[in-house]
Specification:
The structure holds 2 protein chains of 2 kinds.
Chain A (H helix, E strand, L loop, with lengths): L3 H13 L2 H17 L9 H20 L22 H8 L2 H9 L3 H12 L4 H8 L3 H21 L3
Chain B lengths: L2 H12 L5 H13 L1 H18 L9 H18 L23 H19 L10 H18 L11 H7 L20 E9 L2 E10 L2 E9 L6 E8 L2 E8 L2 E7 L3 H14 L8
Antiparallel strand pairs in B: 1-2, 2-3, 3-6, 4-5, 5-6
Helix pairs in contact in B: 1-2, 1-3, 2-3, 4-5
The chains are: A mainly alpha, B alpha+beta.
Chain lengths: 159, 276
């Protein structure tokens, strides 16, 4: 049995990058889920729970770094050259668990969350769009940039 | 297809989010273009690493216990024992102390029940929902993809006599193609798509600025179903079955007008004589 709690914690853990904060965020999200049950209109419980977890994490991150306030995430600013990473090096580094975690943690949270939802949790574009409240086309382009950046971080990292 | 067009689509392709025709077109491009093929391999390498599970964090047991406790506490607060049970949870887990008024009890109890299922029995979601449920999801996904990948129609024509023969040799059935321009639903084209495990005909109609995708394919079940409306992921979806054909219409058009479209389409399809 793979409960949604694992998915909820996994997302929170990657967004907060800290076990303690992730637990707090998930507990908080579950309490909110109970309180705001009227917001649940049936459908996919996992998506609903993840969207509450996600919003909880982002509001906690914002309150921690108020200077970054409500600045809109600028996709383009985080883009990098469209050059492929060295494939041999990428393959080698991708097998290094610690390097993989470091590379993923180094991404901006908006990139990190789409990778976590798509690759670790196997959510569809539509589900990601629902959780992160993005247009579905943005999900695809953001994933494209996030993967590019992840490959760059991973292959470029000094070993 | 140029590299510029291909680049974002490679991701949709790797994620199995592209419609059939775009996938085929992209595959042709990947076969010719070494750079795009390298980009595709890069996605596969990253995916292989990420999906190996080594990057996943599982919920710690203490969190599981705490959430179970919070749910149990909420249930107690709303149940018969609500006055007698002191809350023993840490402050971070304490629920609102106000007892919901009687009119809201039912909702509150339902909330706890549903959340229990969501949080603790998530694995059940992986059990298969009903067939129509799955197909409905596929239909909505197809509709979204057709709009997203800018691949609405393979044959663009408002003429039913152009659209219908286009399907010849591409699928093993002849869909009913009828233009309803006079009734305000002009036909605008058709394409091949994929649903319920096989290639299906997708007909594209318009209503003002709205796009309607109508998916149709033959089924062995000869029973008839009247058009039934449901709302899924923000789209209206109408499903009916007539004369051995399955029909799914999906759009962001309002429910009343989509039902009107379904009625037009359905009444136009006269039941065929049984085969044999």
């Amino acid at each position: 049995m793979v409960p949604h709690l694992d998915a909820a914690y996994n997302l929170a853990r990657w967004l907060m990058r800290d076990d303690h904060e992730a637990r707090d965020a998930v507990q908080d999200a579950c309490v909110r889920a109970l309180r705001f049950f009227s917001g649940f209109h049936g459908g996919d419980g996992r998506v609903w729970l993840l969207s509450i977890v996600r919003n909880t994490c982002f509001s906690r991150m914002r309150s921690r770094r108020p200077h970054q306030g409500d600045m809109e995430f600028d996709e383009q600013a985080h883009g990098i050259d469209d050059e492929a990473a060295n494939p041999e090096r990428l393959l080698l580094r991708s097998r290094d668990e610690a390097a993989l975690r470091r590379a993923l943690e180094a991404l901006p949270p908006e990139f990190r969350e789409v990778i976590v939802m798509r690759e670790l949790e196997g959510l569809s574009y539509k589900e990601i769009a629902d959780v992160a409240e993005l247009p579905i086309g943005t999900v695809m382009s953001r994933l494209a940039r996030a993967r590019k950046r992840l490959a760059y971080e991973l292959a470029g990292e000094e070993s | 297809m140029t590299c510029e067009e291909a680049r974002p689509l490679i991701h949709g392709y790797a994620d199995a989010e592209l419609d059939l025709a775009s996938s085929l077109e992209l595959e042709r491009h990947l076969a010719r273009c070494a750079q795009c093929a390298a980009a595709y391999r890069e996605i596969r390498v990253l995916r292989g690493a990420l999906r190996s599970g080594m990057a996943n964090y599982d919920a710690p047991e203490s969190l599981r216990t705490a959430v179970r406790g919070a749910i149990a506490d909420a249930r107690r607060a709303q149940g018969v024992e609500r006055r007698d049970t002191p809350t023993r949870l840490p402050s971070t887990l304490r629920l609102p102390t106000t007892v919901p008024p009687p009119s809201r009890w039912a909702t509150a109890i339902a909330a706890v029940a549903v959340l229990l299922v969501i949080v603790l029995a998530g694995g059940l979601r992986r059990s298969r929902p009903s067939g129509d449920d799955l197909i409905g999801n596929e239909i909505v996904a197809n509709h979204v993809r057709s709009l997203m990948a800018n691949h609405l129609a393979d044959v663009i024509s408002t003429n039913q006599h152009t659209v219908k023969p286009w399907f010849d040799g591409k699928i093993d059935f002849a869909p009913t193609v009828k233009d309803f321009a006079a009734q305000g639903f002009p036909l605008s084209g058709g394409r091949l798509d994929y649903a319920d495990g096989h290639a299906v005909a997708a007909l594209v109609y318009r209503r003002r600025e709205h796009i309607i995708n109508l998916f149709t394919w033959p089924v062995s079940d000869t029973g008839e179903n009247a058009p039934r409306l449901e709302r899924r992921q923000g789209y209206n979806l109408v499903h009916w079955r007539r004369a051995g054909m399955e029909y799914w219409a999906v759009s962001n058009l309002n429910a009343a007008e989509l039902m009107k479209f379904a009625a037009l389409m359905r009444d136009d399809v006269t039941p065929a004589a049984p085969p044999g």
